[in-house]
Amino acid sequence: xxxxxxxxxxxxxxxxxxxxxxxxxxxxxxxxxxxxxxxxxxxxxxxxxxxxxxxxxxxxxxxxxxxxxxxxxxxxxxxxxxxxxxxxxxxxxxxxxxxxxxxxxxxxxxxxxxxxxxxxxxxxxxxxxxxxxxxxxxxxxxxxxxxxxxxxxxxxxxxxxxxx
Length: 164
Description:
Helix content: 40-55%
Strand content: 5-15%
Oligomer: single chain
Radius of gyration: 16 Å
Mean pLDDT: 82
Distance between the termini: 35 Å
Structural class: mainly alpha
Number of helices: 7
CATH topology: Sufe protein. Chain: A
Shape: globular
């Protein structure tokens, strides 16, 4: 953030990565609007979160994919296919902010390699201007979502294709 409260992009980095460029575009979009419009953008991204294609998932599998740091039930599945991270998530429709944030992450990481995923900004929520819109416990859960995705990507980067 610069002194005026708007996003100041990082100093130019030679060969800026794929994911950083995509997130810079998202950050610029979110920073260019007021809080009410940011909320509408989150709702739009919440509608983009893919479902599980009507797959039946048993309770044990759900439990093993739950992001426990989130108050809202959030479930993440990650795998590597053809060298690209594939991330799927399920969030209750009653939590559009969380679902929207996941939608932003999924958009930013589309077609990303595990190495690309690790460059996702840890402070994405603040860079998007969402920090002031969220309660502390919600912010902790969303930060945990980023940490979990990056941790799984780091694991995948040292492995091979398949379920993580």
